[in-house]
């Protein structure tokens, strides 16, 4: 007869063994979870390479185009992970959009912008950075563009990992410059153009920050700090929404309609003025109806700004897709053209399949890796609410239009993040001003220790320094990496 004590001991041993197995399963699931996103990204990159092989299956330089498509897909994924966060970060940080909603809207609008309004023609020398005569030999040109593509993708990937929003356009510019110098020497670089780009590092974020701060100052003076906030909102919110609609109509007319018709700045401004006026007429009764019964406090104002903020984020994403995707896939389009026709052209048409790789790659990158940078831009630099985030979105569009009018090559990343900094620093200045003018508790707060004062700053200085440092070294870092990659490719493949 079996001893019951032994039976009980056996069951306890079995339970322990089963528990160990379940713990192993949990551990395996926990370890494998971070590998899901890279796995999906790798699958997309492989599909992009296969697509290039299908389109260029009969050409003798098949493997060159396949390799370029693979790195082009890798670049597009990194753009989605880094660049697109600037458009959606403020809306998510202000709680006007959930993370999932922001990713869906951005993916759809970015893809639509790239495929519907993306440029037919892209400058393969990245807006005149290097002289085509210096790299007129097809093989040298292909390796130069391949090096630019690889280096810019690697740099944006590194910046995303560190948590710094950087300009993909400037990364491509740096890559092209570095490869051009390695291929044809310093004389091949158009230094006046590079000087203008370097100036834009300072001009675009400062201008974006100043415009965002100016709009926030206006909202505080005319709406937030008045006795009847709701009445003020009924008066001014339709005006601000009309300005937003007019600005985006102007921007999209200049950037998005170039496939259909050439529009000068005057015509684009007229289109924007008409759109703004029509939007004001439509919005005024809607805001009046929405504000009925609202309490006279700031929480009510946030609700009135929520929907306009969502629309502005969607329009920013569409405009980004129309304008910046072509810059990202420019080196890939240049390689495809050179491989197919055997010559080097200053401007080439972008094949539709290349734009599809760019559009879908951005969507995958945003979905898989975007939340990290969205959180950084939206909530970790400074605290945003719908009014502040609205000012950031509006300043981004206005700054791009002003820069286009002045002929300055600016980065949408620098402008949007500069707008976030502008809003944060204005809040610091405004809080200090109210502190100086106050008394009682405020007078007591003035006597805080310097360390406590620094701790209470409204803009995180560590993020500020990281981002500015990443901006400054983007072009030289991408250029150095590109030069090394070009020399390696040129030495290995003769």
TrEMBL record:
Compartments it resides in: Membrane
Organism: Lutimaribacter saemankumensis
Transmembrane segments: 35-56, 63-81, 140-160, 197-224, 236-254, 260-282, 303-322, 350-369, 389-406, 464-489
MF terms (GO), sorted A to Z: phosphate transmembrane transporter activity
InterPro entries: Phos_transporter
The protein's name in its UniProt record: Phosphate transporter
Membrane topology: Multi-pass membrane protein
Gene Ontology BP, a term: phosphate ion transmembrane transport
Any one GO CC term of the record: membrane
Pfam families, alphabetized: PHO4
Family the entry assigns: Belongs to the inorganic phosphate transporter (PiT) (TC 2.A.20) family.
Keywords attached to this entry: Membrane, Phosphate transport, Transmembrane, Transmembrane helix, Transport
Taxonomic lineage: Bacteria, Pseudomonadati, Pseudomonadota, Alphaproteobacteria, Rhodobacterales
């Amino acid at each position: 007869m079996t001893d019951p004590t032994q039976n009980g001991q056996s069951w306890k041993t079995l339970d322990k063994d089963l528990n160990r197995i379940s713990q192993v399963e949990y551990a395996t699931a926990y370890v494998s979870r971070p590998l899901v996103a890279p796995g999906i990204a790798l699958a997309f990159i492989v599909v992009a390479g296969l697509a290039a092989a299908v389109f260029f299956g009969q050409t003798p330089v098949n493997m060159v185009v396949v390799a370029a498509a693979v790195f082009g897909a890798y670049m597009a994924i990194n753009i989605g992970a880094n660049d697109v966060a600037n458009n959606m970060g403020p809306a998510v940080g202000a709680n006007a959009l959930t993370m999932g909603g922001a990713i869906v809207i951005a993916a759809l609008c970015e893809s639509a912008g790239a495929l519907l309004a993306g440029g037919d023609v892209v400058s393969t020398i990245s807006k005149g950075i290097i002289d085509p005569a210096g790299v007129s030999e097809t093989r040298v040109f292909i390796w130069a563009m391949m090096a630019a593509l690889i280096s810019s993708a690697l740099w944006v990937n590194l910046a995303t990992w560190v948590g710094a929003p950087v300009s993909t356009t400037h990364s491509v510019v740096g890559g092209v410059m570095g490869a051009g110098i390695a291929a044809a020497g310093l004389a091949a670089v158009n230094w006046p153009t590079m000087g203008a780009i370097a100036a834009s590092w300072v001009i675009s974020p400062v201008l974006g920050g100043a415009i965002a701060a100016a709009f926030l100052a206006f909202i505080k003076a005319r709406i937030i700090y008045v006795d009847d906030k709701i009445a003020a909102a009924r008066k001014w919110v339709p005006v601000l929404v009309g300005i937003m609609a007019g600005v985006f109509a102007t921007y999209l007319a200049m950037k998005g309609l170039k496939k259909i018709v050439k529009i000068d700045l005057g015509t684009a401004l007229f289109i924007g003025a008409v759109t703004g006026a029509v939007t004001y007429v439509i919005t005024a009764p809607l805001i009046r109806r929405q504000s009925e019964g609202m309490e006279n406090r700031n929480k009510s104002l946030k609700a009135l700004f929520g929907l306009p903020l969502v629309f502005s984020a969607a329009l920013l994403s569409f405009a980004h897709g129309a304008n910046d995707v072509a810059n990202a896939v420019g080196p890939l389009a240049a390689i495809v053209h050179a491989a197919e026709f055997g010559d080097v052209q200053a401007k080439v048409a972008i094949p539709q399949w290349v734009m599809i790789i760019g559009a879908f790659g951005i969507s995958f990158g945003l979905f898989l890796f975007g939340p990290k940078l969205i959180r950084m831009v939206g909530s970790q630099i400074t605290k945003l609410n719908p009014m502040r985030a609205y000012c950031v979105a509006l300043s981004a569009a206005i700054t791009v239009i002003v820069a286009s009018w002045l002929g300055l090559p600016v980065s949408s990343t620098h402008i949007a993040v500069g707008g976030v900094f502008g809003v944060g620093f204005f809040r610091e200045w405004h809080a200090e001003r109210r502190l100086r003018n106050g008394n009682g508790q405020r007078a007591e707060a003035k006597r805080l220790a310097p360390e406590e004062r620094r701790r209470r700053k409204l803009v995180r200085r560590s993020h500020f320094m990281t981002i500015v440092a990443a901006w400054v070294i983007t072009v030289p870092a991408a250029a150095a990496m590109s030069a090394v990659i070009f020399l390696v490719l040129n030495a290995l493949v003769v």
